[in-house]
Amino acid sequence: MSTAGHEAAANAPTAGEYIVHHLTHFNSTGHAQKNIVDFSVINLDTLFFSVLMGVIGLFVMWRVAKSVTSGVPGRMQAAVEIVLEMVNDQAKGIIHNAESRKFVAPLALTVFIWIFLMNSMDFLPLDVLPNLWQAITGDHHAYLRVVPTADLNGTLGMSMGVLFVCLYYNIKIKGFGGWMHELFTAPFGSHPLLYPINFLMQVIEFVAKTVSHGMRLFGNMYAGELVFMLIALMGAAWAGTATGAFLWAGHVIAGSIWAIFHILIVALQAFIFMMLTLVYIGQAHEAH
Is 45 inside a domain boundary? Predict the structure, then answer.
């Protein structure tokens, strides 16, 4: 190996450094910030790619709606119609208030498409956008994470948005007085001694649903991101040796299998988040 090759190998990051670098956000502080919830820090990469995927989703849906035909539909129109029917059927089965469905069904469709697109960022080659970002900034240590749903801040933000919608429908359907009465009398009854317990149970329920809603999506996408990193490290083990060749071949095979399997995860997690959104809003329409 040449001297330059020895120097490149010496300067190459270790497996741990490689993973830590890819798990660090480009944020508003300009410093390394791993995946923690901190309301004083804005993860700019999560914000950018979330908005970008939202804009792309809206543009695609607008283009399909603009070119819709009553005749034989094209592939894109057929795919959108399948998704629309699926979401509409689920909304009808859970939200029995037809007036509410005029808002909730489009909301569920938006949630599904948006999260599906954000999850799909995981299919991009792991180093492509981070390396491009490093080239643009001229900083070899520049950070960039491109999967918004692998950031707990992003998924909890979405689940909190669902919580606010649920609170809105609790008040709209039951009235403010009716909802306050439910907060203090359900689930154990209307005895004054039970008011504090009932209220505490209601608060715990709202918090638990919101946290688990965001954590479920984050956990699955974060784990998927880690697996892709580990597979990428197998490919980086190529060094002209027989062992390196086997690891590189394993990288290709494992990467292909995991990418195919991950397609199911990407769609399934979007569907689960959408379904829980409908279920929680549906519960807001029900009186205890």
Answer: yes
Active site residue 212: yes
**Tokens of residue 283, six digits:** 């519960």
97 carries an active-site annotation: no
Dump pLDDT digits (tens) for 149-206: 999 999 999 999 999 999 999 999 999 999 999 999 998 998 899 999 999 999 999 9
The total number of structural domains that make up the chain: 1
Query: Which of 170, 176, 197 is CA-nearest to residue 283?
Result: 170
pTM exceeds cut of 0.90: no
Please tell me which residue in 67, 190, 212, 256 is annotated as part of the active site: 212
Domain that holds residue 187: 3-52+107-284
Q: Which of 35, 88, 131, 216 is catalytic?
A: 216
Q: How far is CA 164 from CA 206, 251, 271, in A?
A: 10, 44, 20
> Is 216 designated active site?
yes
